[in-house]
Amino acid sequence: MLIRKSYRYFKNLSLYGQLDPTEFFFNDTLGVVYVVNAKVACSSLKTAILEKAPSVDDNYSIHRIKGQSYRGKLNPTHQEYFKFSFVRNPVERLYSCYKSKFQNDIVKYSRKTPYFDNYLYGYLKNVKSFEEFVDKVIRISDKYADRHFKSQTSQLVESKNFELDFVGKIETIDQDLNVLKDYGIIDLPHFNSSGVEKSNDFGVVLRNKIIKRYYKDFLNWYPEFL
Predict the structure, then answer these.
(1) In this structure, what is the dihedral angle of CA atoms 142, 85, 47, 146, given to the nearest 10 degrees?
(2) How far is Cα of residue 146 from the mean position of the Cα atoms in its chain?
(3) Number of neighbouring beta carbons within 10 Å of residue 136
(4) Residues of the chain falling short of pLDDT 50
(5) Nearest 5°: CA angle at 147, between 146 and 151?
(6) What is the maximum span of the chain, computed from C-alpha positions, in angstroms?
């Protein structure tokens, strides 16, 4: 496991300059590319893009489907497709990541160890609270960040390989989905819920740490929280 992860780290850094490069999920029939943004209804959006999703029973099954996605740089043949993604308040997105990977998934999928135990050779192992998680994550640059807490700006805006045609918000997803209906994306299944905590539910000190780390995300999509 450690050797395999080390090889993947080295390969991704060498090819893309990132530990966890951007994922593109596509449907050639619909002519759409979803630029994946983890912890922003990505399992549901991936499933909705497939016209006939084979055996998608939970929020992990969709990630195991072959031939629908790739990482790194957008394929030239997909440059003319409708390219979209969704964003989420960075505080709530980070909390969703913590709740999912350190609590919910362990119970739901009977995981023996938390998802991040082997990430960066154990840097996030034995994290006991959201506060501790935040303190560790904010020290990781986007170059080395896992997709679940990499800044949304780095994945959706700063790439020189593509420009998005539409960026929706999870907070207004019912309204924003109307844009996707023109491309055959109608039903959005709901697989995962990590709680309803909102940005204001956290203390000022903690929120300010997250705002500082994800300042560009707030500036691009949530300036009202600055």
Answers:
(1) 0
(2) 9
(3) 15
(4) 53-56
(5) 100
(6) 48
State how beta strands 32-35 and 82-87 pair. parallel
pLDDT at res. 34: 96
Q: What is the CA radius of gyration of the chain?
A: 17
Cα(202)–Cα(94) distance, integer angstroms:
12
* Rounded Cα distance, 152 and 217, in Å: 6
- In SS3 terms, the chain reads as CHHHHHHHHHHHHHHHCCCCCCEEEEECCCCEEEECCCCCCHHHHHHHHCCCCCCCCCCCHHHHCCCCEEECCCCHHHCCCEEEEEECCHHHHHHHHHHHHHHHHHHHCCCCCCCCCCHHHCCCCCCCCHHHHHHHHCCCCCCCCCCCCCCHHHHHCCCCCCCCCEEEEHHHHHHHHHHHHCCCCCCCCCCCCCCCCCHHHCCHHHHHHHHHHCHHHHHHHCHHHC
In degrees, to the nearest 5, what angle opens at C-alpha 65 toward C-alphas 119 and 60?
50
For the chain, give the percent of residues with pLDDT over 70.
82
Residue 53: per-residue pLDDT:
46
**Class of residue 50 by CB neighbours under 10 A (exposed 0-12, middle 13-18, buried 19+):** middle
- End-to-end CA distance of the chain, in Å? 41
